[in-house]
Design a protein that fits this description.
11 strands, 5-stranded antiparallel beta sheet
Amino acid sequence: MSEAAGIKILELRSRGCLNLRGDADDQTFLDAVSTAASVALPTEPCSWNSGFGSSAYWLGPDEWLLVVPDGEQPSVERRLREAVSAPLSVVDVGGGFVHVNLAGVDAGSVLQKSSPYDFHPRSFPPGRCVQTVFAQAGAMVAAAEDGSFDLVFRRSYADYLVNWITDAAEEYGLVVLGT
């Protein structure tokens, strides 16, 4: 690994995704989901929470992306359906998404090349997430506590986006971690 590398990219494998919809104004719903999924749903726009190996990303006023360890989707979905008595939609969408982590001192600069969104830490601190256009494809980008960024995008765009990131990161030095 080069010391000059300003960007590190790692595919985050072994992740499952559930799309969840429900009433964010119903505290009983929020409590039941928190218990069943082992992570509290964020209710603030463009925020995310994590806990016990899972993460919950705010996608809209009544929609979240739950990221759980791969293989746990069926049991999390079952627990959600058993715990939540309010109207609920939960769909396993894990097979359709790729997760990568973009790290390094210049990661925000690479993201800035690819999206109209401002990824500077003062505008996009840890705990924030956004669905945005990323290199002409849709992606969800989340700022992590360690200063890196998690990206979730459709599997059908994976080759295009990884090639785009590789090209955009060339001036900073790129290391691809794990394969």
